Amino acid sequence: MSSNTLIAILGMALVTYMVRAGGMWLMGFVKLSPGVEAWLKTIPGAVLVSLVAPTVLASGPAETLAALATVLVAARTKKMFLAIVVGVGVVWVFRKIF
Predict the structure, then answer these.
(1) What is the pTM of this model?
(2) Residue 86's pLDDT is what?
C-alpha cells in the first residue's frame, strides 16, 4: 500500500470520526422532546433494515429463510448472539440443501 493511499484512508477516518463526535457534542446542547427522542431511537433499526432487506429479498431461499429465522429468534429470546448463530446455521444448512 502506498503512503498516499494510507494518508487518504487515515484522513477519511479522521473526518468521519470528527463528524460523528461533533454531532454528539452539538446534540449535548439541544433539549429533545419525548417524541423526537423516541424517533431518534428508531433510526438505527430503520438503517439496519434498509441495508439488510435488499440482500434478503434479492438472494436465494437459504438467505431468506435464515433472515426469517434470525428475526424470529431475536424477537422471541431477545438474545442477539443466539439469533446470529441460528441465522448462520440456517443459511449453512439450506445452502447445502438448495
Answers:
(1) 0.54
(2) 96
